[in-house]
Amino acid sequence: MKILSLKRLAVGLFAAAGVLSSAEPASRIPILQTYTDATSTRIVVMAPDALDADRFQVVGKGEPAHIEVTRYKNPYTGGEVAHVDVSEMTLGTRYKLRVLSSDLRRVIDEREFAGLRPKRHHLKLSLASCAYDKMYRPQVWKRFNEAGSEAILFLGDNVYANRPVKIADEAQLWMRYTQTRQKFSFFYTPKLIPSFSTWDDHDTGVNNGGKDYPLLKTVSRIFGIFFGSPLGSQATFVKGPGISYVWKTPQGLWVFFDNRSFRDDPQASHKGAYLGREQLKWFARQIQESSGTHLFLIGGSKFFEKQLAHQEGYEQDYPHEFGEFLTLLRKHKGRVSFLSGDRHYSEISEVLPQYLGYKAFEITSSAMHSYTFALMLVLNKNRHRLMGTPKENFVILDLKTKRSRLEATATSRGEKRDLFVWKGML
Prior knowledge:
Number of domains: 2
Helix content: 10-25%
Distance between the termini: 54 Å
Shape: globular
Number of strands: 21
Structural class: alpha+beta
Mean pLDDT: 93
Strand order of the largest sheet: 11-12-13-14-15-17-16-18
Number of helices: 10
CATH class of the largest domain: Alpha Beta
């Protein structure tokens, strides 16, 4: 028989007596649901005070789910971020996460959530990057929140940590991650959506930075605190070097690369590392174990396009390693698609057959809100671009299985209307 703590016993008594009040209509603290499979999830909760484990309740029909809480104190504000790991969830059951006040008498926030088990024939995702909080566009986030996607992919520059000082120290990193999390309406929606993230340079706290940034280990830890990381027990995720990982769905293998932790200065040598030897070896193992599977390769910077000298990109800045990367992809028996952010414009680009032996596509989603202007596409002449937009937007990727191929619809959704719709076979 388990012995209840005095606080947990008090919660039960208050609930039985009807003392606990319901949550207020407007959510009060930012919450993000991160790595999720059919029966487990990690939920990240940020609050200005201590988040003792007894302050969390998970309520749902049937057998109660198991929860574990790991707390991370903000060393500069005294606030905390908590990872609420929920396991033993019942398939198909929707739950409520309740956050109690410090005296355990009131529900100060309540969110609905569920497990994630993608269907074989259909998967709908929202792709977003480049969200500078000082240029916040609430209407873009409103449409983002209403998109009805099953999962979210954050493709980098989720936090502009290199503001106001261009090379952030630890205090600025904590401040900027906290300020961004407090700002966006997505973190206050009543129904949580599983969200999977990678980073780019602004997230790390230095523009165009790589492995030589002295605080890389520090910011990697902070990124993991705010955006979570896969649980070791989740069979649909495989953790890789740095912040990289793989997500397995019926549609294919989604590989989230770490494009910063192993990255050399591109000016140092054309043989410099982008993903790095360790990450390439890990990637080779993942695709070897998933022969014939469709690969969705995800990075903060663009993969293809070498004619824009003023822009970052794998092919352009790291041609030697990019050749090794292509060799791995050519050996893979399944097809490959590419997802990226960074550019401050969204576009659909063809990947010519000369690269992989067949025509593929790179879908770039950027920016939710950052520095954009009307002539972005004109000045950034990508001759393989099929369509694009320089306006604030995100991309909805709708995948349907058609025999052995995937039918994709990519919709760029702006503040007031859809900006382009592209359909193709991946």
